[in-house]
């Protein structure tokens, strides 16, 4: 019989080579979608002879794809929980119509129209969440019905045609920028510096937390490489914007949303419950998770963000039309799956969804600059989505 001395009991266990190798492999998989985005940017930068990253094109890329990124942030929560939402494009059209009519016909100020639009979006989400959470109808059916219902509502609301002539402050939400100090814009460069410092501080804090809890940490070389890439990307983006028109207002809104929803998903009980439900619904119910209410608020939140996307798209277009939002739900779903979410639920991140949305945006921008036919653009985006999901399936099989 062997005995263990107190000194041996206190000594840390030697590292397991298999565990160490597996941890490195997991880290590399997490960077796969980011590496794909970088490759696509470099490829189109070469093919377009440098035109992709012209300051004006970068600013347009952010503003034109803001609706996809906003919807993807909400959609990733829906998909993590094991659901899908096919109605967000129609909700965008309805909310945009309500916002435009409230300013032109109902006499509301622009900020009152924004508040009303967000409230209408949340109310629509509550309506759909009720059927999913408390009646038990699958989200696919509920939101498919919602796609038809709310598209019809948009047609009724905007039967008179396009509602235009919106106030300038409202339009600035989708296409305006912060005040500038000249060229280059020092405010934009300052925002980039503050954002870089915040990224470094947050990553170091997370690493210290893991160390304090005795949990596995990312290898130091990849950790610092990741931070370096993030800082370079932030500062280069701000450099390009500083030589254009300054910081787009929508970029500030997106940054706030990414920070807030990343915190919600990773640092709150509600976020952990979403992951638990997507991973194993029965186990979550047995653990005391109030699944009905979690599902309900997931759809309320999706409606709220669809309302915000409706405000942004209407402001960007300068008016509201009943056909607005067509295909938005497919763009958002594609962004989430390209960003690494699992079809089965339980897997996904806000950052991944945003990167997936940027992949779609860069593809659209690059192919448009190259004057690729719209039909071929659809084919290419469909193939990218299929390959991304196939890659996700293969890596999860290899991780078992």
From TrEMBL:
The keyword Cell membrane applies. It holds the Pfam family BPD_transp_2. One of its GO terms (molecular function) is transmembrane transporter activity. It is found in: Cell membrane. Keywords: Cell inner membrane, Cell membrane, Membrane, Sugar transport, Transmembrane, Transmembrane helix, Transport. GO terms for cellular component: plasma membrane. Residues 1-20 are annotated as: Disordered. It is a multi-pass membrane protein. Its main location: membrane. The chain crosses the membrane at residues 31-48, 68-101, 108-127, 133-158, 186-204, 224-242, 249-270, 293-312, 333-363, 375-394. PANTHER family: ABC TRANSPORTER PERMEASE PROTEIN YPHD-RELATED-RELATED, XYLOSE TRANSPORT SYSTEM PERMEASE PROTEIN XYLH. Part of the binding-protein-dependent transport system for D-xylose. Probably responsible for the translocation of the substrate across the membrane. NCBIfam families: GguB. This is Xylose transport system permease protein XylH.
